[in-house]
Amino acid sequence: MKRYSIYILLAALMIGATGCEDFLDTESYTKKNSSNFPINATDADQLLVGVYATLNKTQNNTQCSPLLVMELASDDRFGGGGANDKLFQSYNQLMISGLDELRPTWTVRYQGVNRANMAIASIESAMAEGDEKNQKLGEALYLRAYSYFDLAQLFGNVPLIEAAPENVDEAKTPPAQRDAKEIMQFVLTDLWRAYEMMPVVQWSAVQSGVVTKWAAAAMLARVYLFYDGFHANGSLEPAPLVAGEEGGKTSLTKEDVIGALDNLKSNSGHSLTPDYRSIWAYTNSTAKAGGPVVTGGISHNVKYDYVADAPTWIRDGENAEVVFAIKCTSLASWNADRLGNCNQLALFFGIRNGGSGGDQYVNTFPFGQGWGAGPVNPQLWNEWSDDDPRKKASIYNVEDEATDLEGATPFRYGFDAQWEETGLWQKKIIAYTRTGKDAQGKDVICNHFGSSSAYYAAADELQNAGRDNFQLGFATDIILIRYADVLLMHSELTGTPDGINQVRARVRLPAVGYSMENLQKERRYELAFEGTRWLDLRRWKIAATQLEKTAGVPIYNSANPAVQKSQAGGFASRYQLTNGYWPIPDTEVTLSGGAFKQNPGWGATEGIYVNWAN
């Protein structure tokens, strides 16, 4: 019999969850199993923690993170990294360096599905009716929907596992691929059920990082808009729902989604943060205050003047604009189960520039160093009006902002063979630096997602005391949905400018009328580098056109002038061939014995990125 990797873990989970029954078939009083667990909210939380843990777990192999894949695939960023970072560059080319490269994403998202299925079954059968049960069940439904949304966006037709199996033999039954449109209908069903059942509680009364009714409403709108634009061609017709219970709702209408967003706007307590800059951690107190640093024998007072007049960063858990975020800490380790505790995306998106003795941190303070993925496309910078304050609040322009201090190693292009360099970096998910002291008491700059072994960081709003690992210490949460996005989705669904103009008023831009062009511009600028651009390009059916425009843009490869070019015969043709989907992991296709059909555009050598060819 063929073994399907998405079911191997589930079969093991079933064995443990079933527990041991004696010949009298009496209740087990010593082991937790699916018949007696959970019985209360604490028990349910234990189940749900395992599901939440999968949200960031692909960062065991961060270069396979869905957010990173979709950011690098979009028109507003290039692949970047070093000469050997072929995955970064391949995503931007709608190619891949090997047909199994995204298997970690496939595996962990199905792990999330399987864990959520077990949680749903247990909560439904064992918890007492009431708000606690509805809250916990809603969380599990949301998390299952989140996993399937990623799977269907990335891979298209994937297996649908609708419920936890009742026995091990059932767990071994080969799953069948389902049409991506059907998967999206299942996702909408889960999100609608979650939204409908979860209690009305203001965001500030809920523990940070926990799914709320409002997160379900916002995600419902995001998925509905993608489903409508990509799968239903913008018809705004009701989306069929998967029957959940007798007499349940059979379809989801545009009016249903608008109603959910209206409820969010009226009753959640969410609102826009007054200053756009304070959403992002570069306005943390150390960046604003600065401090002394000695380099080349010269003492300098380093601070980030751009944020001098900004309010201090309002972190997740205190920020009314954050509707849902993945929680991160500095308590990660290289253990496979704990690497996802930190925000390694900040490391991967960090600036690939350096010197020696910490000088590189002086040059780009308060932005830290990393692997150089995702340089910003200069077309975005050039098309974005200087009158829009979000431009400088979102993009770090090396030419304008990098410092040139006497005694410090100057910023230079091509450090460590940086590829597709443009001199432009995003400011939202990136490493940050702080002033501090080394072990000898010398004033230095420390990398804020950790620091080299020569440095240490005191306890502050970004990092716990004593955490000094260069690659594991970054703790800023990954914001997935903001209230600004809710307002823009509401405008798009209603065809009115109200939400657009609330977002524009925050940055003191004049009001505009509603048009699809204005809506598209507003989403591009307000939500830049937050993982939504790729979805928008695809659902608006403009991906091929926008991607093709990136050809010919000047770049640097290891400090050598070059231009951006398709490595597969054309960006538009590559998108049209694949429809924006990545390959089903080759191992899964092989294990299925031919049951899984590979996506178009992904043969043994087709779409395989080997290296950059000038």
Question: What does this molecule look like?
Answer:
The protein is mainly alpha-helical and 614 residues long. Among the domains are: 1-20 and 29-178 and 579-614, Serine Threonine Protein Phosphatase 5, Tetratricopeptide repeat (Alpha Horseshoe), CATH 1.25.40; 276-313 and 344-475, no CATH class. Helices cover 38% and strands 8% of the residues. It contains 23 helices and 14 strands. It has helices at residues 5-18, 41-52, 66-73, 86-92, 103-126, 131-155, 168-171, 180-197, 213-231, 254-267, 285-289, 344-348, 359-364, 378-383, 390-394, 398-401, 483-494, 498-506, 516-526, 533-539, 543-548, 571-578, 586-591; strands at 158-159, 177-178, 239-240, 251-252, 291-295, 298-302, 322-326, 395-397, 424-426, 433-437, 443-447, 478-482, 554-557, 560-563. The strands form seven sheets. The protein has a two-stranded antiparallel sheet with strand order 1-2. A two-stranded antiparallel sheet has the order 3-4. The protein has a two-stranded antiparallel sheet with strand order 5-6. A hairpin with a 2-residue loop joins β5 (291-295) and β6 (298-302). α2 packs parallel to α6 (131-155), α9 packs antiparallel against α10 and α10 (254-267) runs antiparallel to α17 (483-494). The longest helix has 25 residues, at 131-155. The two termini are 47 Å apart.
